[in-house]
Amino acid sequence: MREHSDPQFSSPVFVGREPEAVELRQGLANVLAGTGRLFLISGEPGIGKTRLAEELGKEARGRGARVLWGRCWDGEGAPAFWPWTQIFRAAVGNTNADRFDLLTDTDATHVVSLVPGLASSRGSSALPPLRVLASAEPAEARFRLFDSAARLLKEIANTAPLVIVLDDLQQADQSSLLMLRFIARELKEASILILGTFREAEVRASPALSRLISEIAGEGRQIVLGGFSQSELAAFVEQRLGSAPGASLLAALMQSTAGNPLFVDSVLRMLIAERKELNGELLSSRDFKVPDAVAETVRRRLSFLSESARAILSIGAVCGQEFEFDCLREVSGITGEALITALDEALRDGLLYSVLAGNLRYRFAHNLIRATIYGDVPAAKRIELHWQIAQTLERIHQADLTAHSAEIAHHYLGSVAVGSPAKAINYSIQAGEAALEVSAYEEARHQWQAAVALMERYETNSSRRIDLLYKLGKLTYEAIDFAEGIACFEHALNLCRQRSDNRRNAILLLALGRAKTRWTPQANIGNGLNHYRAAEALIDRNQLDLLGELYHGRTLADFDAMLIDEGLDVSAQALKIYQKVGDKCLWTVIAAHRA
Hints:
Layout: H1 18-32, E1 37-43, H2 49-62, E2 66-71, H3 82-93, H4 97-100, H5 106-112, H6 118-121, H7 138-157, E3 162-167, H8 174-184, E4 192-199, H9 200-204, H10 207-217, E5 221-224, H11 230-241, H12 247-257, H13 261-275, H14 280-285, H15 294-302, H16 307-319, E6 322-324, H17 325-332, H18 336-348, E7 352-356, E8 360-364, H19 367-376, H20 379-396, H21 405-413, H22 421-437, H23 441-458, H24 463-479, H25 482-496, H26 502-517, H27 525-536, H28 544-560, H29 564-581, H30 584-594
Parallel strand pairs: 1-4, 1-5, 2-3, 3-4
Antiparallel strand pairs: 6-8, 7-8
């Protein structure tokens, strides 16, 4: 639950959850004594997961710990590692000069790549040049990034214990969850407490997500929150109303909300807004029907806002779970004072809260609120707003489009029907490349798949489509899924065969040859060798890069297939190529196979 400022409500205090709070306080005591802990809090939307985390944060700050929050988005344009970006931005970006010296460590330079603008904001001499993570093998690059992140957090925790809250993990990108799993295993002797929250049903709906969350939970303790008990509900309602509720009101609330704090709070607010005068006895005797779904409760709450406030919330909902004041102002066309008045109205009603992170931003108090509002925006209007938001974000962030490419791509994708497919494709490609640079392979795949899907409709004869399919295949084969990578190569080859482009055809045949001759479940050495032979017929003798790759691949495959004579022949050709281009490393590899 979020703190509200409705004058008809008493100032909210924390109610119930005593067993869970005791366990978390004990975990905090462990961390203050130097032993790291991990907790995951699960439950349905609105059950109080975030509020319980907030209470732990208050306790931790009171005992000298630093509390850092990373909030996850549900895929609406957020860059890879977004929750961790927020954590490192808060941990390092606003720190004092002495603590910032930690970043001069080589490990820390990896982490800076997750926080756009951090290095430049400190001056050119503050940091050594960033490593290019993509230059390493995918698994190695990701390990180095995760290890650097863990080491930096430990160093920061040496100055003061850390409490890290990762909210709404069911919305996190897979790269963020993999980093959490890695860091969780490094907590044993660190003064760090990590607390993650997630919605149980949404995690269960995805087998892959469920497995990953289970692995993370296995590194610590999972706390499952249910609805309020009868006594907790009574205390909660009394705290909200300022007087003891009647039995009939409590019975109706429990029956209709199952003790979900958000639902209870929403119903009470609706009733108060309708009656204008609050009286516990009046509410208990009133013959009211609680809405069947919280969406209806949200709609009723919205009905008591001004038209301008509702319009602003509709635009904000299309922007995303979190949105910028500057973007909202440009898209809405409402003047500054009127806009602030409308936003204040939503803030007072507890529908939004402000996020002070650089430029002023606002966030919906709960994703259910945002989802309800977004769903009620007519489809045609949503498309138009996505188009306007995309253009506005381009203007606002013109100096640093790469850092916002995923968000801009999301809005151009949402407005393809009336907007620019080319821009949607371009930004999706750019967002994928940005994700790849920080080893967020799943996010890169997601962005490139979106671009390929649009190209299927709008760039059917484009060589760029073939090239992107090749890159997507290379990424997925090397870092995510062998079969998916091979399927991308085959799709690209089928398209390329319709063109007179020997070089591209050869590159794709080489990729398939390499993929089919590696020891994976998809291996088929005979088929792979056929691909290599087909590629050889297309390669010019002066294309040394392709010839080197061909003979290198053939050498390994022929020897694996026990085709010794052919292997010796092609390996001799490979040695000549590598000697000619001066590649001592690959020359040594081939020579070793001939030995």
